[in-house]
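Entry 14. Structure prediction run on the chain below.
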Amino acid sequence: MSDHSEAPVAPVEAYEPPYYVAVFTTVRTQVQSGYGETNARMEDLVKDIPGYLGMDHAQTPGGLGITVGYFRDADALTEWRTNAEHRAAQKRGQDQWYESYTLHVAKVERSHGFVRGEVPRSPTAG
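Output returned:
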């Protein structure tokens, strides 16, 4: 049983655009030795990147995983992409943990959020 179900569930808040997202979609292999520890380390490491805004995760019962990382600017995203420890984890993922993956990077031009019981928040018009 995962302790993730006990943690509060909430999406990353809507930020004032522009900002960037990196959408990492995966299908994992059966070999997952060391994955959990490395994933936890990457989550700790990315928080030290100036301009890192947050991360959302989702996993389907069929095994499709999606992680969306939010970054204030392209420099923050570049710093994460080129981090030596992150690069080593990427290599291990290709060698061992991932059957397939895609990465999509996009500039966010519009963003808004909703929380039941709160006044709607819209950092951008439209």
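Residues 81 and 124 are 28 Å apart (CA to CA).
Filed with the rest of this week's runs.
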